């Protein structure tokens, strides 16, 4: 009996050791969890490249236009937990607040860490640029897609001229460079090789011209030999200074755009409340879905938020994970988001993901 007891004890110890070793093994997965939030209307202190402390507004404008708000417009992030062991992966998997995904989805093996960081930084900067364009349009400053160069051998030579502003393609309004590409692609797909009708503003007068779009090596419809550039006036001096945040990706676009409009508006768009939200935005002000929505609603709730601006296409996933007490306000455009905030300020009931 004593020998049998010793055998059982040794077996239990071996099983415990093997279990501990298994749970301590690193796995090829990462955990996605709630990350920090940042008020786009606040000031931040960080060290510049020379190691000196700087305090700046995340969203700023020229002093004569700049206004202050009592509330907050907070962007929200997802924190990636990398190099995790099996035990922690199991904990994340069992938790409603986390997601566990293959590591290669976040860190592709064919890309270096530097390349991944550069892509995130590029998306972050593009998000800021699109937000500024959308915000300025909301403030009445339209985008003019302007011809900057026509090559001597371009098929459009003689039809298009430098400084022409392209205002329509086959009667459809051109509101951005992105929209121009979409309209050219649609026209090319409908009638390959056929000319399309452009309306251009030349010296203050509308002029109709015919040009033939082609696809470039990236599959984007272009006017061969023609360079265009979106031009938009910015009388407010809007600027984003975000070096100290260490954040990447496109999902802050909606909050950036709202903060820009708020910064130069006499009215406090927040109504004194703390507003948290997310959403990619394009130059036309359309709000698109983002990743990690389940973790972001948890982060918003942990921050004490009562309302969360949610891209319409994220509503289904957000509802499945929404904590008690957090209202998911559904938005699909910048203009729509501003109207929902107005409804909140007036004490009304905004459109939610449940309606």
UniProtKB/TrEMBL annotation:
<dbReference type="Pfam" id="PF05362">
    <property type="entry name" value="Lon_C"/>
</dbReference>
<dbReference type="Pfam" id="PF13180">
    <property type="entry name" value="PDZ_2"/>
</dbReference>
<dbReference type="InterPro" id="IPR014721">
    <property type="entry name" value="Ribsml_uS5_D2-typ_fold_subgr"/>
</dbReference>
<dbReference type="GO" id="GO:0004176">
    <property type="term" value="F:ATP-dependent peptidase activity"/>
</dbReference>
<dbReference type="InterPro" id="IPR036034">
    <property type="entry name" value="PDZ_sf"/>
</dbReference>
<keyword id="KW-0645">Protease</keyword>
<dbReference type="InterPro" id="IPR027065">
    <property type="entry name" value="Lon_Prtase"/>
</dbReference>
<feature type="active site">
    <location>
        <position position="251"/>
    </location>
</feature>
<protein>
    <recommendedName>
        <fullName>endopeptidase La</fullName>
        <ecNumber>3.4.21.53</ecNumber>
    </recommendedName>
</protein>
<feature type="active site">
    <location>
        <position position="296"/>
    </location>
</feature>
<keyword id="KW-0378">Hydrolase</keyword>
<dbReference type="InterPro" id="IPR020568">
    <property type="entry name" value="Ribosomal_Su5_D2-typ_SF"/>
</dbReference>
<dbReference type="GO" id="GO:0005524">
    <property type="term" value="F:ATP binding"/>
</dbReference>
<comment type="similarity">
    <text>Belongs to the peptidase S16 family.</text>
</comment>
<dbReference type="GO" id="GO:0030163">
    <property type="term" value="P:protein catabolic process"/>
</dbReference>
<keyword id="KW-0720">Serine protease</keyword>
<dbReference type="GO" id="GO:0006508">
    <property type="term" value="P:proteolysis"/>
</dbReference>
<dbReference type="GO" id="GO:0004252">
    <property type="term" value="F:serine-type endopeptidase activity"/>
</dbReference>
<dbReference type="InterPro" id="IPR008269">
    <property type="entry name" value="Lon_proteolytic"/>
</dbReference>
<feature type="domain" description="Lon proteolytic">
    <location>
        <begin position="246"/>
        <end position="344"/>
    </location>
</feature>
<dbReference type="InterPro" id="IPR001478">
    <property type="entry name" value="PDZ"/>
</dbReference>
């Amino acid at each position: 009996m004593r020998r049998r007891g010793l055998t059982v004890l040794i077996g239990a110890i071996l099983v415990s050791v093997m279990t501990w070793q298994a749970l301590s093994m690193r796995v090829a997965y990462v955990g996605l969890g709630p990350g920090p939030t940042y008020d786009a209307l606040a000031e931040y202190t960080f060290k510049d490249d020379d190691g000196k402390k700087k305090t700046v507004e995340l969203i700023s404008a020229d002093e004569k236009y700049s206004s202050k708000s009592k509330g907050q417009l907070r962007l929200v992030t997802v924190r990636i937990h990398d190099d995790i062991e099996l035990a922690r992966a199991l904990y994340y998997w069992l938790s409603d607040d986390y997601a566990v995904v293959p590591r290669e989805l976040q860190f592709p093996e064919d890309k270096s860490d530097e390349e991944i960081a550069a892509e995130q930084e590029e998306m972050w900067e593009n998000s800021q640029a699109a937000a500024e364009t959308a915000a300025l349009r909301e403030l009445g400053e339209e985008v003019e897609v302007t011809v900057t160069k026509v090559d001597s051998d371009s098929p459009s030579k003689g039809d298009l001229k430098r400084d022409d502003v392209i205002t329509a393609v086959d009667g459809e309004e051109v509101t951005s460079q992105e929209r121009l590409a979409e309209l050219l692609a649609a026209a090319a797909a409908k009638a390959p090789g056929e000319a399309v009708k452009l309306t251009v503003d030349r010296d203050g007068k509308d002029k109709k011209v015919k040009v033939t779009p082609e696809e470039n090596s990236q599959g984007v419809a272009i006017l061969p030999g023609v360079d265009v550039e979106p031009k938009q006036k910015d009388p407010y001096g809007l600027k984003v200074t975000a070096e100290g945040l260490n954040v990447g990706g496109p999902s802050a676009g909606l909050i950036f755009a709202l903060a820009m409009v708020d910064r130069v508006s006499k009215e406090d768009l927040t109504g004194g409340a703390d507003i948290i939200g997310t959403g990619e935005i394009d130059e036309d002000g359309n709000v698109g879905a983002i990743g990690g929505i389940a973790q972001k609603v948890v982060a918003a709730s942990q921050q004490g938020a009562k309302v969360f601006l949610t891209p319409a296409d994220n509503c289904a996933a957000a509802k499945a994970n929404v904590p008690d007490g957090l209202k998911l306000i559904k938005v699909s455009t910048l203009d729509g988001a501003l109207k929902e905030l107005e409804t909140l300020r007036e004490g009304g009931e905004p459109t939610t993901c449940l309606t």
